[in-house]
Automatic annotation (TrEMBL), chains A, B:
This is GntR family transcriptional regulator. Pfam families: FCD, GntR. GO terms for molecular function: DNA binding; DNA-binding transcription factor activity. Keywords: DNA-binding, Transcription, Transcription regulation. Coiled coil: none annotated. Residues 4-71 form the HTH gntR-type domain. InterPro entries: GntR_C, TF_FadR/GntR_C, Tscrpt_reg_HTH_GntR, WH-like_DNA-bd_sf, WH_DNA-bd_sf. It comes from the Bacteria. PANTHER family: GNTR FAMILY REGULATORY PROTEIN, TRANSCRIPTIONAL REGULATOR, GNTR FAMILY.
Length: 224, 224
DNA sequence: GCATTTCATTCTGTATACAGCACTAAATAT
DNA sequence: ATATTTAGTGCTGTATACAGAATGAAATGC
């Protein structure tokens, strides 16, 4: 693959900080302070911050600098809808383009992941498996742009999804839904596939918006 | 609105240069030369270039710098599919959310644009009217993220669309399609709306991929 | 007491300098 | 003649310095 540069790593680091609310929403980012904190100079820091502006994590106002965008419940809804748009479009094409071999591979991965899925108590691990499945699904469409967009969306809602993860009851349903979706894809049944996928995504939307409200209170409790 | 900064303008300028193929596909961007050409220093130039990396116009490789991404026919197809995904999802929600007043406003705009639409021979003006209609459509969904994404996609396929614009026969069909789409929205007929919109977008996909092939030959004829 | 203005401080915005790496081309060896 | 090495050149990557703008606090006027 391509050489990962220093700015790439810095961007990832800041992206994570923003997504985890380690940078407070609506807060002005003071470059000098942040640069010292991350042990880099302001020049590469600003390059990374500029990338995050284009990725939707930050805003930039001339003369004032960079601000962390807040994740309101409305924006979470927007992102979930965008996610549904991307994934459904991908499936619309995957149903005719995905090779049986690629689908079989994904089914295999699902089988191998299942025991871990049932056993683990690590929410992040659970989420990563879920994300990996959906990314693999989109990859079956052969559309690199849809892949890019989903990656962006996932990054932005990752920690909200994690907070919304209900360990008790969510797991069997989720795993079952993944199997149903894959089944519809194998059967090349577009209507069923799209219906199942959309329902699967919509189901989590409400959990997530509730989660972001909880998250907000957490943040402001921490901050005082 | 928010203060537009110097880097914002620089980003727009470079974005346009990339979209118009004034920066050659796969070409390495030499920062010193480009900085001199645009009469800025390398620091703000690199900030703008970093934004364009995140917007999908450029790539960045550590130790080598920035490269213009080439627009292959495959990527054009990908972008058109992504466009269909965004616009259809937007309509799916607009059908229940858009206020009658907002829809009436759009219908009015369409009426007032029609004479100009029939008369003008300026391809760019034509394209801008088309883009404005589709952006307004998506805005009816109330989803800011879908809006953002469509803006990005439009920027990247703008000049390819312009090349693919057929002045002779495309105009009446296009205008008619816009009216049909709006009619379905007014009737709150989701199925019809989505079908019409998707057909309208798909219809231009082939034109555009052909156009990008033409564009490529143009570029390489110029470059020698 | 409240608003307003002024001043000091701090931060942003950009140029520039320099170190180190990557590419090119010439030269040498096989 | 071709492949490989090596020196040279130019570019990227980052730190730093400095100018100008914005913010906040203190002081003054009403």
């Amino acid at each position: 693959m391509m050489t990962e540069s220093h700015v790439d790593r810095l961007t990832s680091q800041l992206r994570r900080m923003a997504a985890e609310f380690r940078i407070k929403p609506d807060e002005r980012i003071r470059e000098g302070e942040m640069a010292k904190r991350l042990s880099v100079s302001r020049t590469p820091l600003r390059e990374a911050l500029n990338r995050l502006v284009s990725e939707g994590y930050l805003t930039f106002t001339g003369g004032q600098g960079f601000f962390c965008r807040s994740l309101t419940p409305e924006r979470i809804m927007d992102l979930y809808e965008a996610r549904a748009a991307i994934e459904c479009e991908a499936m619309r094409h995957a149903v005719s383009r995905a090779s049986p071999a690629a689908i079989a591979q994904l089914a295999d991965d699902l089988d191998r992941a299942e025991p871990l899925y049932e056993r683990t108590t690590d929410r992040l691990a659970l989420l990563e498996m879920d994300e990996a499945f959906h990314m693999a699904l989109v990859r079956l469409s052969g559309n690199a742009e849809l892949e890019r967009m989903l990656e962006n969306i996932n990054g932005r809602i990752r920690y909200v999804r994690m907070m919304g993860l209900k360990m008790e009851d969510g797991r069997p349903g989720r795993m079952g839904a993944h199997r149903t979706i894959l089944g519809a894809l194998i059967a090349r049944d577009q209507d069923l596939l799209l219906a199942e996928l959309r329902a699967h995504i919509e189901m989590r939307k409400e959990d997530a918006t509730q989660a972001v409200r909880d998250a907000f209170s957490h943040i402001y409790v921490q901050a005082g």
